[in-house]
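FAQ: What does a multi-protein file look like?

Like this. Sequence, then tokens, then the next protein.
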Amino acid sequence: MHILDIFRTSVSTCSFEFFPPKTEKAASSLYDTLRSLERLEPSFVSVTYGAGGSSRQLTHDLVARLHQTAALTAIPHLTCIAHPESEVEEILGRYAALGVNNILALGGDVPSERATYDRSRDAFRYATDLVGFIQRFNARRSHPDPRGFGVGVAGYPEGHPATPNRLVEMDYLKAKVDAGADYICTQLFFDNRDFEDFRERCELAKIDVPIIAGIMPITSVTGMQRMAQLSGGTRFPAALLRAVQRASSDPGDVERVGIEWATKQCGELLDAKVRGIHFYTLNQSRATLAVYEELCARRPLPFGQRQPKPTGS
């Protein structure tokens, strides 16, 4: 489905993010995860793109497989770094030919082995430029859907790590929306007050597209530490840290703390009429399923199935 149709028909969306597997074993594990989560009938799933486009072909292959063999709307990530216009044009053409209807346009990361990479050589310096290029592709009627690709962009409730000036940061986000973004999907966060403040700042900036909240259940202490390192500024509330510390001697207890925290976050967000919840799954289904099923037990959900379908149905 086109993202505009998804928002038109959904009070709140439910979506999952995956990264493309690099080995046969990882692929087998991912498809088991997909089968577990597919029965929840998510609004869409997104597929990440390695730093500097390093997993470009893997991303395309996974999106193609999902589009052709699963009852899922797959949204590929596309980034700016290390791509000339001709490559992006080719990528968009391939997705259009497949019938893929949506793109998540991101700035992207420089590969760690190319830390001194000169960004001035890139055709697209910022996600705003990439969004504009996709809309020019759309304007040429190069996509079978007359609306062209639906376009999503990233938002940062806790602030973009590369933009300490929060006023300028909102200007940049507004520029992405003005360039043609249809919705915003946020980076993960653990304090809903950060999301509510972000949503209010978007309103003040006259940003009126749907905003989807990014949620990642904590499943281990090492995973939490890695999350803090990679995200460039994730804030862990003291109450969450205290609960994790109390449970740290038992990995199962740590996971239960993470699931309970994420469930509480999602419940509060749904009460606040969030337009969507996007689960960062790390290609695992257990924690996300546990959060979803706990939510089902507590309330009727505004997205997907009211209850998960039985396995094997």
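And here is the next protein:
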Amino acid sequence: MHERDLVAALRAELAAVDPARACDRRALAAGLGPDAARGARDAVVARLAVRLGRSGPDASSTFDWDTSQDHCRMAYLRGRFLAHGSLSLAGGRTHLEFVVPEAEAPILAGRLGEAGLLASWRLRRGRGVVTWKSAETVGTFLRRAGAGAALLELEARQVSRAVRGDLNRVINAESANLTRAVAAAGRQLAAIETLDGDGRLARQPYVVRLVADARRATPEATYGELADRLSLHRSAIQRALERIERLALHDDGGVGRRSREARPVGSRPAVRSRPAVGSGLA
């Protein structure tokens, strides 16, 4: 469903809500305002205003928020949204706002806060704009206002968008990993050819030669796949290939060996004995 179609379906669903209580009908009519039938932005709101007018509620009457029950307050807010509200889903963000007279903006924001629907407000070109930018708050309002079907569609869109985002991240990560793996395999194959060409590969330990042969046979294999094929630990595969790359860049001396001057861990250097104080003196 296109964004415009979803917004139109939302407004139609809210306008189709037919309050059973007379007090809710009066609150809804007050929320729409006295000029709703003539100045409505769409036909569904105009028809709602006419339908309410025929059933008796006076849209010009003042709504007493402080003394009204919660169901009356929600009917009033539904009417206010139909008359002055808009919903935007652009850029993957849910944005709902009421555009009302300047003096009403702080009052409406305060009433929404009392209803558990915290909103911000500002002035824009001489009009008051009361805004929700939280998808959770918008969803709560739509559910309480009676737009269950539109809310389900909206949540399905959000889930679909989140799944697409996660999938894209996974694909990008896998692509980056594959690029790195291909580059590493290319370096390893080149190193193996270098060592094979100068005869040094044949002088390497059995495991290193075994891993080199397996890499040449399956250039696309991962370390894990090579480990499974050779019945070795993955760390052994990685060490062997790292050794091959180092050998191709340097001489054999010091690669994978311990220097002659290296001492065993925990050993102490020999302490040279000193002559006793006074020795050799007359």
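Q: Is there any per-entry metadata?
A: Some entries carry free-text notes. For the entry above: The first strand starts at residue 85 and ends at 88.
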